[in-house]
Design a protein that fits this description.
heterodimer; A: 344 residues; alpha+beta; eight-stranded mixed β-sheet; four-stranded antiparallel β-sheet; globular; B: 283 residues; alpha/beta; Elongation Factor Tu (Ef-tu), domain 3; Rossmann fold; seven-stranded mixed β-sheet; six-stranded antiparallel β-sheet; 7 helices; 18% helix
């Protein structure tokens, strides 16, 4: 595909030219940086390591209506998003784009999910390569990288006064044309290459995950789960801010006779998540829930979908209030002595 | 099948008849015989013994229940639901003939009825665990020529807690052995007194060319499978159904996994050989 560029001080114009798209870019909401619809292109800044909240919320909102109804009547009105309303995510980091490609598999599995898929179809991903990876980034270990192109329609590099834009798909090319970008030259491409190498060298944390998916089931009864969950507060932030965590609850909500069935983010770290009506809970303590979180990401998901449900964004490590570190857990998984899986 | 473009949309079904299987009160079981409001749903609806559906009420919510009627019973679906005190089961128990419910399904896998052709079938149930076994029993009864001997073993704490009481005589009239059990002695009770795993040892079905299907409380499943193995049944000959909390029913919302399997999609029917490899299946 094509190589384009624009001057940094022209960013507002470039974004403003995207008349046929709803543009979403990182914006501070209180203390939280998350992707928000751009109201004033002049306010968009590309100065951030990554958003606190991953852009998964743009495909899978915290709460969304599945359908509406009126009690006493039998008409059901689905509220499926409109795939023709185009959106462009400006500045998504490569790890978060890679996360979409992983979650896509779940939402396409057997019963395709129209709510997720319509939003995904309608959205163009304009990535932004990382030049300053954060302390807990380990994306290269997970098949990504500071300039990974996976899942993206275009990738931007900050090369001094200029943003170099590499388009990767027809969707990206079309958006670049709408932005009115000029052709990039050798200098920008070289600068981007150099930046990628530098950024890679700055990533200090690594994970060799070979063998982990196969080994995890044999550690079902291992004492390591108690050790790691001892200080867990069951706050769920590791899952809510995980770009690949996709678990949800479904609830009916009523206002007078008008009702809606909605789905909202849920987390396997809450005890209610698996609680049966009978009172029985198959995962009664933090031990079982921690084990499930790690096993789901690193064993159950890859068993079904051939890919580990983790992109190395580091959010679960960065935001855990009691410093539980995913990579420490996985290092222990690798070191742990295998015991025979317990059977009934 | 469900609306393929949107698996979250339920069908509306009308309750044609509703009755209590057990005395009204705490943990009562009520059976709902329902029919789709839109008759066209039947053109594409096709379920198998073991399949489940999300059953609910608009404004309240939905939960997963097994379809307790066999596909050989035409023109209606049956759900036999215990009021376990939750929001949905409570609200469903309030309903009577004429009321509407939502049905989203059929969901999940099913018993491999074709694979079992030519074999003897032993059904071993306890309490509300008989609900997923009833479609197997009725399917085999409706296709008698295709199967060997059918035996029904069923227990509950007391005789009035047996579900589907009216059908036991029908089984016997057709020559199907129906062995009933209650936990505690009752006046004039002519059948077995004791737990279902003990009833199983008393009846002692032979494992040769036989499939055992069991469902009930976890403790019953545990001891029934142990006893079946004592009788010489191999793990591959034993089938059961699992249950977990569910929301989507289509393998997306996450919560019903046992190990890498989703009970809503990969289950609820599992053979014991598979379950033995998944420690979480017995959690």
């Amino acid at each position: 595909m094509g190589d384009f560029k624009f001057a940094k001080d022209k960013m507002a114009e470039v974004i403003g030219a995207l008349k046929d798209y709803q543009v979403l870019a990182p914006k501070a909401v209180g203390d939280v940086l998350r992707f928000q619809p751009v109201e004033d292109p002049a306010q968009v800044s590309l100065d951030y390591p990554n958003t606190n909240v991953p852009p998964k919320e743009l495909m899978f909102p915290e709460t969304e209506t599945l359908f509406k109804y009126r009690v006493g009547q039998t008409d059901i009105e689905p509220e499926v998003p409109d795939a023709s309303a185009r959106r462009l995510i400006f500045g998504i980091r490569p790890c978060d784009a890679l996360a979409y490609t992983i979650v896509d598999k779940l939402y396409a599995w057997d019963f395709p999910d129209p709510y997720y898929q319509k939003r995904r179809e309608a959205t163009v991903l304009f990535g932004f390569a990382c030049s300053e990876p954060a302390a807990n980034c380990f994306c290269p270990s997970m098949g990504g990288g500071p300039a990974s192109e996976k899942g993206l329609d275009a990738l931007m590099f900050d090369v001094g006064d200029t943003i170099y834009v590499k388009t990767l798909t027809d969707k990206g090319e079309e958006a670049a044309k709408a932005m009115g970008l000029e052709a990039a030259g050798e200098a920008q491409m070289k600068a981007a290459d150099a930046q990628e190498k530098e950024a890679l060298a700055k990533i200090k944390r690594t994970l060799d995950h070979s063998g982990i998916p196969e080994k995890l089931p044999s550690l079902y009864d291992h004492t390591m789960w108690e050790r790691f969950s001892d200080r867990c507060l069951s706050c769920g932030i590791c899952t809510f801010l995980c770009p690949t965590c996709h678990c949800f609850d479904i609830q009916d909500e009523m206002e007078g006779f008008d009702g809606r069935r909605a789905r909202m983010w849920d987390t396997c770290m809450f005890s209610e998540y698996t609680l049966h009506t009978s009172g029985h809970n198959p995962r009664p303590t933090r031990k079982e829930r921690t084990r499930n979180r790690i096993s789901h990401k690193y064993s159950y998901f890859p068993e079904k979908f051939d890919v580990i449900a983790c992109v190395g964004c580091g959010r679960c490590i960065n935001y855990c209030p009691v410093n539980i570190d995913l990579l420490d857990i996985l290092e222990d998984v690798k070191k742990a002595e295998v015991k025979e899986a317990k059977t009934a | 099948m469900m609306d393929e473009s949107n698996p979250y949309l339920p069908y509306i079904a009308r309750i044609e008849d509703a009755w209590y299987e057990t005395p009204v009160g705490d943990r009562a079981v009520k059976t709902f015989k329902v029919n789709f409001v839109d008759d066209k749903v039947w053109d594409t609806w096709s379920h198998r013994p073991g399949n489940c559906a999300m059953v609910g009420r608009l404004g309240i919510g939905e939960s997963m229940f097994c379809i307790s009627s066999s596909p050989t019973e035409k023109g209606y679906l049956r759900f036999s639901i215990m009021n376990s005190g939750g929001k949905v089961t409570n609200a469903l128990h309030e309903l009577e003939a004429g009321d509407t419910i939502t049905v989203r399904g059929p969901l999940g896998n099913s018993f491999p009825m074709e694979e079992w052709e030519g074999k003897n079938i032993v059904s071993i149930g306890g309490g509300i665990g008989q609900a997923p076994l009833r479609p197997v029993i009725n399917y085999v009864r409706a296709n008698k020529a295709k199967y060997g001997d059918l035996k029904v073993l069923y227990g509950a704490r007391t005789s009035d807690l047996h579900c589907f009481k009216g059908e036991f005589d029908e089984y016997r009239e057709e020559g199907t052995a129906c062995h009933l059990a209650i936990d505690v002695e009752e006046k004039d009770w002519p059948h077995f007194v004791g737990f279902v795993p003990d009833l199983l040892m008393e009846v002692a079905p032979k494992p040769e060319n036989t499939i055992a299907v069991t469902c009930g409380p976890p403790i019953l499943i545990k001891f029934v499978t142990q006893n079946l193995e004592k009788l010489g049944f191999k793990a591959e000959q034993i089938y059961t159904t699992l249950e977990e909390r569910m929301k989507c029913g289509i393998g997306k919302c996450g919560r019903c996994n046992v190990g890498s399997l989703y009970v809503c999609k990969d289950g609820p029917v599992f053979d014991y050989a598979t379950l033995k490899t998944i420690p979480e299946a017995f959690a």
